[in-house]
Amino acid sequence: MEINQAYRFCEEVIAANSKSFYKSFSMLPKEKRKAVWAIYAFCRTVDDIVDEGADPVRELSLFKQEFNDFLAGNFDAENPMWLALSDVFRNYDMDDEAYASMIAGQEMDLLMKYYRTVDDVLDYSYHVASSVGLMLLPVLAPGKTAILKEGAIALGYAMQITNILRDIDEDLGLGRVYLPAELMKKYNLNEEDLRRKTVTPAFVSVWEEMAKEAEYYYQKAFETINEYPVSSRIPVKGAGLVYREILTTIRKKDYNVFGQKHFVPDQSKQQILACL
Questions:
Q1: How far apart are CA 167 and CA 228, in angstroms?
Q2: Are 89 and 138 in contact, with CB atoms under 8 Å apart?
Q3: What torsion, rounded to 10 degrees, do the Cα atoms 67, 73, 44, 240 define?
């Protein structure tokens, strides 16, 4: 397979699965943009194994071995994701550990269905989302990893908590509850209440407490945003602002996350990105 074909495949993956990220990161210079597509394709592949695989435990174990082989220089050159990613690893100072953390986070989804504390949710969020920021940093801000690492981790926390608050109903269908048990207990909310798919004052209280957690980490992430090169700063900040707007969208719909998935309207996205 030819390398440009491999990158086109990766672009199609992100365009089909994450319109917000695709729109935001399309503003990057060409070479950085292609690298982001490849990294996204890796993340999407491992995520789909867990959520859609016929035998996810075995398939994830095989994928982990494939990744270890990849690091050793052995991979299927006809697989567009591995081919594109090999080019990224050649051109940028990649953090192997961030990729391993993502795989470990997906393993958590196979092993854990409930989370006890907010800190437990943050640990999970680090593995499945902050790890993505750490994968992207060498591409988006070469030489700035040390100063931007904390902000990248914070943005991962914020975005993953936003995902959790948007996808409560969908996750219930998969037998997963990411709202921390201690917080649900505090407001006298239980899993059966969630399965009734009714927005109650207790539900809103739990939702808002987690939303405030997300908003704290968005703010923390934006504190160092000016350390990014200009070409990367706008896409990263744009992605963060658009994602944060999901919380506003849900509030406007009276917190009804049941039976529907909320997205930021295109007009709102354009307004946010136009102000950057």
A1: 30
A2: no
A3: 110
pLDDT of residue 275: 66
Q: At 108, list the tokens.
A: 């958590």
pLDDT digits (tens, 9 = 90+) for 70-99: 999 999 999 999 999 999 999 999 999 999
> What pTM did the predictor assign?
0.92
Total residue count of the chain as it appears in this document: 276
pLDDT tens-place string over residues 237-249: 988 998 999 999 9
Region 1-273: CATH code: 1.10.600.10
Residue 172 has a CB neighbour count (10 Å cut-off) of 16
Residue in this structure with the two tokens 């506003």, named with its chain if needed: 248
Burial pattern 54-87, b for ≥16 Cβ within 10 A else e, equals eebeebbeebbebbeebeeeebeeebbbbbbbbb
- Which residue is it, tokens 């059966």? 192
